């Protein structure tokens, strides 16, 4: 029995133990090569036996070798289907083992990512509040970054006495304008529309105020009060959404943003439109004062 036949015998009797699909495939290739070699040996011995010139004293040895070669060829031929079946069996076993390992890795990765996402999703309301705060801070920073010209009518309290360093945005406008946060129950915690009030990039044209007898400066002052009201509305709405998601009060959400009761009251008043009312009252008072001065001048 040749070494190839011995290896085939071990592989088949041990049912592929210590073998892989690749090693069995190599064994099949070796068996096919051995079959071709044995077939050539059989053909050569048959030719020698049929040759009249072959010495008689060699015929017995040739015939014995021929019988052994025929037996080996038959055994190798019979082993081929069993080797192919063993290869397929090991291939299936390897595939099953690889898929089980893949599944186990998938389960572990899902557990890790699931825990991370659960932790991050719990922080979404806080992140949304921080984004709303960034928008509000950007609005407030405009008081220091943009000084209205003397000709513009503004509240004297809003006209800065000193010069201040420029306050850049905490969050880039691109981030604010392309970020949308949604809670697990589908509540929109933050959307690009919430960032428009604090965005300086390509601001949308503001609608003109329908108020009679307003100068450009007066219209600008009233428009500013209206924008502050809309920004306060959005921020207060974000507080209310977070409070509903977390099951706490609006006051508690405001405290998370380092806002005291006075600050929350001011935010609520601004959202209710009191600042707009104050601006309109100031305009009326200014008109009356100008009218009184005109009367005195003509009298």
Summarize the structure in words:
The protein is an all-alpha fold. It has 2 domains: 3-116, Methane Monooxygenase Hydroxylase, Chain G, domain 1; 123-298, no CATH class. Helices cover 72% and strands 2% of the residues. The chain has 10 helices and 2 strands, in the order αααααββααααα. It has helices spanning 3-13, 21-50, 56-122, 124-145, 173-177, 192-195, 216-246, 250-256, 261-272, 274-298; strands at 181-182, 188-190. A hairpin with a 5-residue loop joins strand 1 and strand 2 (188-190). Helix 1 (3-13) packs across helix 3 (56-122), helix 2 runs antiparallel to helix 3 and helix 7 packs across helix 9. The longest helix has 67 residues, at 56-122. It is rod-shaped and about 150 Å long. Mean pLDDT is 78; it is low at 197-212.
Briefly, what is this?
The chain has 299 residues and is mainly α. The protein has helices at 3-13, 21-50, 56-122, 124-145, 173-177, 192-195, 216-246, 250-256, 261-272, 274-298, and strands at residues 181-182, 188-190.
Q: How are the elements arranged and paired?
A:
Layout: H1 3-13, H2 21-50, H3 56-122, H4 124-145, H5 173-177, E1 181-182, E2 188-190, H6 192-195, H7 216-246, H8 250-256, H9 261-272, H10 274-298
Helix pairs in contact: 1-2, 1-3, 2-3, 4-7, 7-8, 7-9, 7-10
Offer a few descriptive terms.
about 300 residues; mainly alpha; Methane Monooxygenase Hydroxylase, Chain G, domain 1; two-stranded antiparallel ribbon; 2 strands; about 70% helix; about 0% strand; rod-shaped
